[in-house]
Structure formats: structure tokens, C-alpha cells
Amino acid sequence: MVLSLICPTKDPIPWVAAIQAIAPDIELRVWPDDGAKDDITFALVWAQPQGIFAQYPHVQVIASMGAGVDNLLQDTSIPEQAAVVRMVDPRLVSQMGDYVLAAVFNHGRQFPRYGHQQRQRQWQPLPPTHLGQITVGVMGLGQIGQSVAQRLVQAGFQVVGWSRRAKSMAQVQVFAGQPQLPDFLSASEILVCLLPLTAETENILNAETLTQLPLGAYVINVARGQHLVEADLLALLDSNHLAGACLDVMRQEPLPQEHPFWSHPKILITPHIASLTDPVSVAPQIVENYRRYTAGRPLLNQVDRRQGY
Ligand code: GLV
After folding, report:
1. Do residues 223 and 193 touch, judged by C-beta distance below 8 A?
2. Cβ(104)–Cβ(157) under 8 Å?
3. What is the pLDDT of residues 118-163, one digit of tens each?
4. Does 274 sit in the ligand 1 pocket, CB within 6 Å?
5. 87 vs 286: CA distance, rounded Å
6. Who has the most CB within 10 Å: 44, 69, 219, 271?
7. CA 93, 98, 101, 106 torsion-angle sign
8. Active site (catalytic) residues
9. Across the strands, what pairs with 244?
10. Element (DSSP H or E) covering residue 186
């Protein structure tokens, strides 16, 4: 019964420290020096080399270090019997709310335009915006999306939401499924993408859907780069249908040096930092799942592998 951390792009040390601090009895190893692969029953992973689970014949639980499991689930070497779980971190959820509010206010109070004017030494008040009249559309109403929508309501925005299945939420008009997507889009003056990445949601932000946003709409993508067809966004920014975009995630990360997003005057980029899993905050749920697995009890935050989230 050994837990291995397989996370080539993340520093494993804070994760090991956070787990050891509360569960010194759990034997931890770190890939690639995790010894006999036969011993490993529980894997904690991020950006694992694809196909790696073929080396771990006894792995029973695979825990994603993040909220998203899209990259993990693409790995066809995950054994049929293994359970996949993800992190549900209250700190990650609140950080996402902070980021989206910052992006919405930044655009709503026209900071980018004033920044441009400042560089021109131009003292020029722009027509004021009334934030209470702006409708923000949240795409994806899972734990993170619902919390972000509530934060936007509390901040005084009109909020609409879209999810695969109908949901009821206080003060948020919820649209459901493909048939109601056009009505959701046409109401969203600021669109926030918080969808899980699945075969159904890949490329969902494309020329057809983005054109249904109102003229002058703003797009915030904090989900996955693969949700957005980059060339379609650029065309709609350049034709002035869209006013701008704030992007935390890219199809290719790090964003390649020659990519047009870097220098586009209407695009604000952050390097996938909107919300990050905090090892100290999630160590209790990793340990809890380890204990549940050893006791044969149902796991927390288990992913439906067929559904993809
Ligand atoms: C970050 O992108 C995550 O999925 O946690």
C-alpha cells in the first residue's frame, strides 16, 4: 500500500510535506524514483507521461492534483478497475471567484482603455458604465461555476448561467443544454467559461457561438485553452464584434513566443494562475480518500470516467 506522486511539471516537495504532516503512516514515493511499481496502489498525479499507468499493475485510485481531469482521462493506460478522483478545494474555488471578479471589474471599469490613454498622456473621461446593468454569463455550473455566479450576483451584476442539465439557482437565470445555448449567449455581455473539457465542450467557443454574443461583448476563459478556437476569437476581435478577452488558459502552454495573443491590444493574458490547488488545503481530502480506499469505503469527489468530469 504505497502512494506515488507522479507530477513531472510540479514540485512534489510541498505535496509530500503536506501529506506527511497529517498522515506520517502513509508511505509516499515520488516518480520516477518510486521503486517497485507493483507496490503502488494510489497515485497522485498531474501532467503524467501518457501511458505511464501500464507500469503500475496494482494502482486502484488515481487522484488528480487539480480540479480538472481532462488531461488525465485522455490516458488510455488507466486500468479499467481504477477509480479517478479530483480535488475539490474551497481555496481554489474562492481564488477563481477573485480572478473572475477582477477581470470583470477591470473590463467593466474600462481600465485597459484608461491604461492606453495614460500611455498617450490623454486625460479623457469615457462614458460611465453602470455595472448593475451588465449581464455576466457563466458557462459551466459545477462547484466552481456556481460559486463564481453567486459572487457575481453579490457584486451587483445581472447573472445568467448555462449548464448541460437544468439547475435552479437563486438570482441566476439558468439556461440548459444545446437548445438554450443561443438565448444564453445573446444575454451574456461578459462571458465566463468555466466548463470542464470534454469531447462535447472542446471548441465550444467558436465563430458561431461567439457571434451570438452581443456586439461589444467580452470573453473570459479560465477553463481550458481547448474550449476556444483561437483564430475565431482573433477574427471577432479584429472585426470589433468583441471588445476584448481575458485568457488564463491556452491551447498550448506556455503560450509560444510567436503567438499573436501576446501583442494583441484587446487581449489580456495570465499564465494559468486563476486558481491553483494548495497542497496544504487539499492534503486532508487526499488522506481521507486513501483511508476510504484502504477501508473499502466510497471515495470522495470521484469522477465519472464516461462523462469526463
Ligand atoms: C487547474 O487548471 C485545475 O484543473 O486545477
Report:
1. yes
2. yes
3. 999 999 999 988 999 999 999 999 999 999 999 999 999 999 999 9
4. no
5. 8
6. 44
7. negative
8. 224, 272
9. 218
10. helix 181-187
